[in-house]
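Task: sequence in, structure out. Protein: DNA mismatch repair protein MutL.
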Amino acid sequence: APVPTHRPIQQLNDQLISQIAAGEVVERPSAVVKELLENALDAGATQITIRLEEGGVKRIAISDNGRGIAPEQLPLALARHATSKIASLTDLENVATLGFRGEALASIASVAAVSITTRTADAAHAWQIVGSHQGTVAPSSGPCGTTIDVQDLYFNTPARRKFLKSEQTEYGHCAEVVRRIALARPDVSFSLTHNGRTIDHWNVCEMARRSSQILGNDFAEARLPIDESAGPLRLHGYAGLPTASKARADGQFFYVNGRYVRDKLLVHAVRAAYQDVLHGDRFPSYVLALDLDPALVDVNVHPSKIEVRFRDSRAVHQFVFHAVQRSLAATSATAHGSTPA
Ligand code: ADP
Ligand code: MG
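Result:
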């Protein structure tokens, strides 16, 4: 076994701290796509373009028509622990934005070649910063909004680069992240290109239409709308009928306050609601959004924020279970009622 080397305790430099953090925040190209999309949505964008090259490893360029960044703030966007989204513990406990850690862009910039081109509505022209928070801010051109261009992911951390899978696999993960986010935001248009080819383009529309576009017609023809509230909890979206169930769990989309999550408690609650109508080897399909007071849920559990913790998890479980079960029961009752004896 290697003998541990002993060195005096030293403060790590900023670049290395960011590269260590990048291991958690940016485990693969799709994680970059997720962070950039969340930033665009937090900036109020209604139109987002995602351009990928070589599965995102070569390039991820995301443009939005959001509020942009003022030139004097541009270095801060790339600085560690710098955010416009929270300023206090109270803000953190009530956070309504998708981001708040202020470390995504700094982490990405420590393991890739990054540039930000941005223009606010009141600026005469766009501005650009290249590289890191130490880069110079120079005049540029472009429309209102922001483009973040990330090239050559892990070019300076070859050990991490080795963990990347094939272009097709990395692309698949990126496309999945785009689908997840686009599914929750029919009020925003998304366009996705890979190696110059347009793969998806979804215009602003209603939830019903966006979910058919993304989940396909099988789901569209076999889904039950749900919209139930109880106290501070609201569950809305669609539960797929048993005929829309799948052999794999890849048709399950759950959002908490607009954030895609994969939460054991929620998956279990929905699964239990299907128990009477679905064989044990089938997976229900659904798009469900749980909205609640941000103070009742902790999203600060993991850097990728895919896990959440509820203040009262029993109440959430019961609510989701009953809401889904009731809507499934209501249709089977209607179906039976309308069947001639
Ligand atoms: P966080 O999202 O947690 O605040 P990030 O590192 O992702 O941290 O972004 C840092 C800051 O840069 C954000 O707080 C925001 O003010 C600004 N920013 C990032 N992306 C955009 C964007 N697309 N449009 C406008 N501002 C942005
Ligand atoms: Mg962010």
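Residues 35, 38-39, 99, 104 surround magnesium ion (ligand 2) (CB under 6 Å).
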